[in-house]
């Protein structure tokens, strides 16, 4: 999941590029923008980088084990 710090930084960057006439309500806009971003990101079913890396490593180990087992089966079939 995306961290609150990342969402806050994104909200601040978006509000920073808004015209001066809108900047008068900047704090309210940032709060609303944060809420919209958090809601949108939670609906996307995202995973953290750490979780992705763990799952990638697990998949790599599983593939390696599968290849070893396939070789063992091949050797047993030759006998």
Describe this structure in words.
The chain is mainly α. The chain folds into 2 domains: about 45 residues; about 30 residues.
Outline of the structure:
The protein is mostly helical and 79 residues long. 82% of the residues lie in helices and 0% in strands. Helix 1 (4-16) packs across helix 3.
The profile of the biggest β sheet is: none
| Total of helices | 4
Q: Average pLDDT, to the nearest integer?
A: 85
Tell the overall outline: rod-shaped
What's the alpha carbon Rg, rounded to whole Å? 24 Å
Instruction: Give the beta-strand count.
Output: 0
Low-pLDDT residue intervals, each spanning 5 or more residues: none
Helix content: over 70%
Strand content: under 5%
Task: Give me the secondary-structure topology.
Elements: H1 4-16, H2 20-23, H3 26-43, H4 49-78
Offer a few descriptive terms:
about 80 residues; mainly alpha
């Amino acid at each position: 999941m995306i961290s609150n710090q990342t969402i806050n930084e994104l909200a601040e960057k978006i509000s920073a590029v808004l015209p001066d006439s809108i900047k008068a309500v900047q704090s309210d806009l940032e709060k609303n923008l944060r809420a919209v971003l958090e809601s949108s990101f939670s609906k996307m079913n995202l995973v953290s980088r750490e979780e992705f890396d763990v799952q990638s490593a697990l998949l790599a180990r599983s593939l390696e084990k599968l290849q070893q087992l396939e070789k063992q089966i091949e050797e047993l079939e030759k006998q």
